[in-house]
Specification:
Blueprint (H helix, E strand, L loop, with lengths): L11 H11 L11 E5 L2 E4 L4 E4 L2 H4 L8 H13 L12 H12 L3 E5 L2 H20 L7 E5 L8 H5 L4 H4 L9 E4 L4 H7 L4 E6 L15 H11 L3 E5 L23 E4 L11 E5 L20 H16 L2 H17 L6 E7 L2 E6 L7 H9 L2 E2 L1 E3 L3 E4 L7 H14 L5
Parallel strand pairs: 3-13, 5-6, 5-7, 7-8, 8-9
Antiparallel strand pairs: 1-2, 2-3, 4-10, 9-10, 11-12, 12-15, 14-15
The structure holds pyridoxal-5'-phosphate.
């Protein structure tokens, strides 16, 4: 019997064959099989070490297996993992208080995945629209942006502009209108008396690190105020230090009414997300209106509390701002014939390649061979978004390899 038949794969090829045999093919991962992580580094099953420049789409801003978060998680797992919300637990109130104090919010709704939190925000603003704004029942509209990414549920992909994300999943939920991202005039024009909310990513992550004009969110804030429309920012990717501020909205001097966070809220340990609300939109929910078996469990709560503490106490947000600028400067100095633009904020950086080169994937494959793990986003953009614990000499190490790959023959 071969090792694979006995169920114990050893080599990269064997692990990949196993996944390919039994797994749904909804991803096309790079051919690297990881087994261990620490800080910005991960190791594959062959013992090769890589710098993680994706940070699991920003779920692991605090670095892989952060010891304080691991300790908190193990300690709580031994004590009490879940109560369900049928009963209370001693961690949840503390998470609420700490989150509200950090983000200047009034209320929190705990969920698990990012998409669930976005769905929850959609439910909240629709209910707010009917009960507070008095929009005729069934007519509420939410404005979203072209090229958005808010998750993968049927409702959410229904208002996505990526054909592949929608293909085969109809019928979709009505009540969404999509406008160009970064265009405040388009927002003003799209609003009518049934508009309840505008849902936007402060910087679009999945569609290629698209940074809007500097005054965009300020204008959007004012337009929403003038029209009694709720401003919802999806900070699942941009939040929690990624762009060099706790929330990306701080760069633009605004406060959203509703902010959705997830990903790094658990330091990557576990799915934890939350809807934060300033205008008390969340007070539309009454017992039984909405729920989640795992949302707000004690394990999730202490993991999130610790992940937030670590982010602040260990200076990761400042580090993201400082080293993000350094990384961007270094990338701009590369002078590659393939690079069209470099953009981003903090450690959320995108290198856009000219679109006649055949895509960013080949560069990500080459970077992998050099020991750097990146993922292409929207075909022509290489995203560099390492954990926020990266240091200057790590970037210097990476730049040598990046420079080489951005000058390779293709
Ligand atoms: C990742 C992401 C989501 C979805 O989060 P999941 O946990 O994958 O459901 C939503 N919005 C943004 C901006 C994201 O980056």
């Amino acid at each position: 019997m071969t090792e694979q038949e006995s169920g114990i794969p050893k080599t990269t090829e064997q692990f990949i064959a196993l996944e390919n045999e039994y797994g749904a093919r909804n991803y096309k991962p790079l051919d690297v099989v990881l087994t261990r992580g620490e800080g910005i580094w991960v190791w594959d099953v062959e013992g090769k070490k890589y710098m993680d420049c994706l940070a699991s789409y920003s779920a692991v801003n605090q670095g892989h297996c952060h010891p304080r978060i691991v300790e908190a998680m193990i300690g709580q797992a031994r004590k009490l993992a879940i109560t369900s919300r049928a009963f209370r637990n001693e961690q949840l109130g503390l998470l609420y208080k700490e989150l509200c104090e950090m983000t200047d919010s009034h209320m929190v709704l705990p969920m698990n995945s990012g998409a669930e939190a976005v769905e929850s925000a959609i439910k909240a603003v629709r209910k707010w629209g009917y009960y507070e704004k008095k929009v005729p029942y069934g007519k509420a509209e939410i404005i979203v942006c072209d090229n958005n990414f808010h998750g993968r549920t049927v409702t959410i992909v229904g208002f996505n502009s990526e054909e592949q994300y929608r293909d085969g999943y109809a019928p979709f939920s009505p009540g969404f209108k999509s406008i160009p991202f970064g265009d405040a005039d388009a927002l003003e024009k799209a609003i009518n008396s049934n508009t309840v909310a505008f849902l936007v990513e402060p910087i679009q992550g999945e569609s290629g690190i698209n940074v809007p004009p500097d005054d965009y969110l300020k204008k959007a804030r004012k337009i929403c105020d003038d029209n009694n429309v709720i401003l919802i920012t999806d900070e699942i990717q941009t939040g929690l230090g990624r762009t060099g501020k706790l929330l990306c909205e701080e760069h633009y001097g605004i406060q959203a009414d509703v902010t959705v966070i997830g990903k790094a809220l658990s330091g990557g340990m576990y799915p934890v997300s939350a809807v934060l609300s300033n205008k008390e939109v969340l007070s539309v929910f009454h017992p039984g209106d909405h729920g989640s078996t795992f949302g707000g469990n004690p394990l999730a709560s202490i993991v999130a509390r610790t992940a937030l503490k670590v982010l602040v106490e260990e200076g990761m947000i400042e580090n993201s701002a400082k080293l993000g600028s350094y990384f961007a400067e270094q990338l701009k100095a590369v002078n590659s014939p393939y690079v069209k633009e470099i953009r981003g904020k903090g450690l959320m950086l995108g290198v856009e390649l000219f679109n006649d080169l055949g895509g960013a994937r080949q560069f990500c494959e080459a970077l992998k061979d050099e020991g750097i793990l990146c993922k292409e986003t929207h075909d022509n953009v290489i995203r560099f978004a390492p954990p926020l614990v990266i240091r200057k000499n790590d970037i210097d190490w990476a730049m040598e390899k990046i420079d080489k790959v951005l000058h390779m023959d293709i």
